[in-house]
Amino acid sequence: MVAALPSSGCLVTEGPSFEKPPRTAPRIIPFTSTAEVRHVVAAGTKYEIPPFDYKVAGEDADQPVRSVLLINYGVSNDPNTRWRDAIGAPVIQPGTITDPPRPFDHYASIKWITHTAREPPACYTATLLVTHEFRSDYPLSCPADLTDYDSATWVVALCGPTVAVKDCHPVDCPRFGDPDAKYCESPTETKP
């Protein structure tokens, strides 16, 4: 005895729907090739620190990436800031995780205008911070979401004209993670 079972089929009338991937924190791809930037400069003269060049990668969910260079991040005498100086940069247009690092045709660049630097010898940290949105409580320009940022830090050492670059080691370099330092905290942080 043979029994026949009814067959059922499935007819697909629409293509699959794809949701946009969630936004990821931007990732810095630095071009400045060294973790330390050392310069010998003549005392009392104007000196130039080369720009910090970089690209970013990540899933931006149609939001541009914003950048800031923080000088001595974590060290400030002002209770409303978390750094000695902050220098903004042009906005980087949004991209996707499958795109090559952006901007596509050049490196983004931030230049530290050294009007706040002391005469040599002196030492600073320069921290590049990228995020999709900064907090609105200016001047405390921290990321609005502490899971949505990346940072890279360079040591900038400035020495006088009689010191060779290889011997330029000022002793007053700020240390990241210093227990007395003040860094960006959650958006619910209360000002001192």
List the helices and strands and how they pair.
Layout: E1 27-30, E2 36-40, E3 52-57, E4 66-71, E5 85-88, E6 108-110, E7 122-131, E8 149-159
Parallel strand pairs: 2-8
Antiparallel strand pairs: 1-3, 3-6, 4-5, 4-7, 7-8
What does the model show?
The protein is an all-beta fold and 192 residues long. The protein has a single domain, classed as Immunoglobulin-like. It is built from no helices and eight strands. The strands form two sheets. A five-stranded mixed beta sheet has the order 2-8-7-4-5, with no helix packed on it. It has a three-stranded antiparallel beta sheet with strand order 1-3-6, with no helix packed on it. It is elongated, with a radius of gyration of 24 Å. The relative contact order is 0.24. The C terminus is likely disordered.
Explain briefly what this protein structure is.
The protein has 192 residues and is mainly beta. The chain is built from no helices and eight strands.
